[in-house]
Amino acid sequence: MYSAIQPFIKADSEHHFKSEYEELRHLLFNLLDSPVKSTHHIGGTSHFNYPTEPILDILVGVDNLHDITALDEKRLNYAGFYRLHHPYKKKVVMAKFNNLIDLKQEVRLHIIQRDTPLFKQYLKMDEALANNDEIARHFNDKKTQILEHVARISDYEQRKQQALDKIYKKYVADSK
Q1: 83 Cβ partners below 8 Å, 6+ apart?
Q2: Cβ neighbours, 10 Å, residue 24
Q3: Which pTM value belongs to this model?
Q4: 72 Cβ neighbours under 8 A, 6+ residues apart
Q5: Where exactly are the structural domains of the chain?
Q6: What pLDDT score was predicted for residue 171?
Q7: Among positive and negative, which fits the CA dihedral 85, 123, 49, 165?
Q8: Which residues on adjacent β-strands are paired with residue 53?
Q9: 136-169 pLDDT, tens digit each
């Protein structure tokens, strides 16, 4: 897999990410016997309140994480998605790559069981980053600090998730 952090982008003037999200949303809901119950375009490419990696992140809600069977994975493989085998807690992550040589991530599906604290955290955090300039600035500052200390995408993603978790606990978790 491409191990470097992709250059950040600040805008999407052609609305590429929005249209790609709509296409993939349609695909996910129309897979035969799809367990998908909801989708949400999340992350920096949904609002561009801070520079972000050129990766479309989609939160996919299912009623039960075990509903993602080998058959569903096979169908997603045919659509160009591959499961990332990292120690993710209570979620399945699948990615679509630019090609099978460079393996630069273009799309990530964060598949999480709905009606769980983790699913709600994703939605609340995304809403905060999209609508609260102070939180977006704070997150951008953290990402910039992380970039100064890591070169590999896996280290960057791990530290970025830790920063998001801290920001969530500090600013978002108890807010209404």
Answers
A1: 73, 92, 93, 94
A2: 21
A3: 0.93
A4: 31, 34, 35
A5: 16-171
A6: 86
A7: negative
A8: none
A9: 999 999 999 999 999 888 899 999 999 999 999 9
